[in-house]
Sequence to fold (269 residues):
Amino acid sequence: MKKKHETFSGKYAWITGASSGIGEALVYEFINRGAKVIISSNDEQGLERVKAACGGRSSEIICVPFDLSDTSDIANLVERQMKIIGKLDYLINIGGISQRARIDETPMWLDRKIFEINYFGTIALTKAVLPYMISHKSGHIVATSSITGRFGFPLRSAYSASKQALHGFFETLFLENKINNIRTSVLIPGRVRTNISFHALNSEGKEHGKMDEGLLNGITPEKAARIIIRGIKRNKREILVGGGELTILYIRRICPWFFFRIADKLKST
Ligand SMILES: NC(=O)c1ccc[n+]([C@@H]2O[C@H](COP(=O)([O-])OP(=O)(O)OC[C@H]3O[C@@H](n4cnc5c(N)ncnc54)[C@H](OP(=O)(O)O)[C@@H]3O)[C@@H](O)[C@H]2O)c1
Fold:
């Protein structure tokens, strides 16, 4: 693994969604820059694979699998890790799941499941970690939204809503904790070539099982990870991650009528 400037030497990061895609690529960036990393997802074997891929630096990784949709024991889980590491510098919430189902086909239990993973899972871990960061008067917490966390989009009702909710939570977290020197960044990815559409849930709660055409033109997870690291180092509160597709964000903000004329015609699968 190619070594980079050790900007994160001596720092601890906790990365969720670390078993694939953007989260996995971020693990390698942090490790290459000298950090020690706790990695989480619901896929224990996937985490072990990522750890093994870190080669000589795999001893700097601790695997902590847990399900974001069941965070009833999260305070104990965080306490155990904090006893081991002492201080956490970065919490990088990447884990999440997408949706490919119209509103009229989506049962309420599925809306709730997507919110449990994307919103409640993320804020539960954040709330469990926050008191430790406050006690050290330092820390940086990252959450992952989406461009569809900035507007509604066909087949993504619960996904879009769960990501929009994260903006409200993390803006509040920032405002309440400026005094505690806690920094926050919200990632707004456009299209990144990962398995996100493959694992997206259909109206039955099963995997969509297809790679969306649009995603094939997305940036690589490695490029996404480099953009994210740059944004974190610059302490940006919002980090746009993607290519030309991000233009839609400006259209939505500056020319909403045009957005609503075209958005339902954009490819949603
Ligand atoms: N790729 C894009 O174009 C794009 C665009 C906008 C936003 N995003 C956001 O970026 C983040 C990362 O997605 P990705 O593109 O890297 O997709 P990915 O390759 O599918 O990765 C998703 C990660 O989230 C984890 N995860 C999903 N459900 C979980 C659960 N119940 N408990 C614990 N972990 C869970 C997965 O682990 P398991 O193996 O355990 O399921 C996996 O590590 C997501 O929040 C996604 O919404 C991605």
Observations:
- The longest strand covers residues 182-189.
- The chain has a mean pLDDT of 96.
- The two ends are 35 Å apart (CA to CA).
